[in-house]
Amino acid sequence: MCSQIGPPLKKRLPQRITVLVIGLVVGGILTLVYLSGKNSVSRPRIKSLCQRAYSGDARAAESLKAVGSNAVPFLIELTQYRIPRWRTRLPARVPKMPFPLRQQIVHWLTPPDAAALHEAAIRALGIIGQDARDAIPLLIRALQDPEGKVPWEAARSLSNIGKGSVPALITALQEETNSARGMAIYTLGLIGSEAHPAIPTLLSILTHSNEQVRGSTAYALTRLGPEAVLAIIDLAAHGSPEARAAAADVLRQLISSPESPILTLRLMAASENPDARRRAMQALGDLKPTTTIAVKTLMAALDDSIPEVRLAAIKALGNIGAKAVIALPELNQRAEEQKEPERAAAKLATERIEADIAVKAVSPPQKEN
Predict the structure, then answer these.
(1) For residue 48, what is the DSSP state?
(2) In this model, does residue 345 exceed pLDDT 90?
(3) Is 4 exposed, middle or buried (0-12, 13-18, 19+ CB in 10 A)?
(4) Alpha-carbon distance 28 to 133, whole Å?
């Protein structure tokens, strides 16, 4: 009889040992999670918060913000998480046992989705915002990551960090691959006016050979605020023929958008900063707008308290030509009464407007687009 009982016991013994080992492992993991959960800046807690925030849990997002920069090292670790080989094999080795128990063990032993975890950790860095500045180099590299939504999450996080990420993004504009350069351009556009230090570099690649890069650059420039508008207008007026054509395309996009350059320049013309007002006058002259409201904006600047602003407005009216005819009485008066150099500038502006009127009087009418 003993000989009959012996073999089955020997067969069941390895299974029981396996169950015991798995039980000890799971118990140890639960104990560690419980103990570390008491610490608000523990790896398991940060991992849980970033996953919950990624799924749309507003409370988890607020908790991440509260932890702030203390969470950044753990989140950086999560972006580099790789599934150990043993974890991919272990669930398949769970022995046959009652279904509820087997299901629970498999749930604890199944490794997380690495790609989703990377995306969640990168988004969490963006939720933290400016306090996640130490992660900027990692996020810049993530812009080139081919995995899932990682590049787009990295772009959003860099934009949430804001102007602190701009220097690294400007460097990224020099990347050899168009995809990497395109993601950097896209991110600068998301940041908006705080990315204005990137304007010269963006203007330099506005004539890039790749059509997609050119399109992304044009779009980004339309989102960088008044400084970009002034730079585009200046390029359209004074750049190389190729650059002027590219800048003109950007201006057409701006004019058809709610952020019209005329509106932007009118706002600048009302600025308390005299240099901003002067630059707005110069830009209006370079843009040569045909709207009455633009001409009236320049005429209002003729009474500015700063001589340089008045002089820039006079020259701009001359550049506009026949469309500035309503400014002739004011300019004629200033050509007689004002001191130099305003007197000479007003006289020249009057001559240019009258000459343009004369040319248009003998020219055949052109169809408006």
Answers:
(1) H
(2) yes
(3) exposed
(4) 35
Residues contacting residue 228 through CB under 8 Å, at least 6 positions apart: 193, 196, 199, 202, 221, 222
Yes or no: say if 103 and 96 are a contact pair by the CB < 8 Å rule.
no
Report the distance separating Cα 298 and Cα 327, nearest Å: 9
Q: How confident is the model at residue 272 (pLDDT cuts 50, 70, 90)?
A: confident
Q: Running DSSP on this structure, what letter comes out for residue 108?
A: H
At 59 the three-state DSSP class reads helix
At residue 285, the 3 state secondary structure works out as: helix
At 332, give phi and psi (nearest 5°). -60, -40
* Span 139-185, pLDDT tens digits: 999 998 887 788 999 999 999 999 999 999 999 998 878 888 899 99
Task: In whole angstroms, give the CA distance from residue 117 to residue 115.
Answer: 5
Cα angle at 271 between 267 and 272, to 5 degrees?
Answer: 165
Q: Which residues of 258-284 are buried (b: 16+ CB within 10 A; e: fewer)?
A: eebbbbbbbebbeeeeeebbbbbbbbb
DSSP string, 173-195: TT-SSHHHHHHHHHHHHHHGGGG
* 266-to-238, 276, 323 alpha-carbon distances in Å: 22, 11, 17
Q: Which of 150, 214, 226, 154 is nearest to 190 (CA)?
A: 154
What's the angle, vertex CA 193, arms to CA 188 and CA 136, rounded to 5?
40
Q: Following DSSP, what letter does each residue of 119-158 receive, concatenated?
A: HHHHHHHHHHGGGGGGGHHHHHHHTT--STTHHHHHHHHH
Task: Give this prediction's pTM.
Answer: 0.64
CATH class of the region 288-361: mainly alpha
| Angle (CA) 158 160 162, round 5° | 75
Write the pLDDT tens digit of every residue in 60-107: 999 999 999 999 999 998 888 665 554 555 555 555 555 555 555 555
User: Do the beta carbons of residue 117 and residue 156 sit within 8 Å?
Assistant: no
- Rounded Cα distance, 131 and 125, in Å: 9
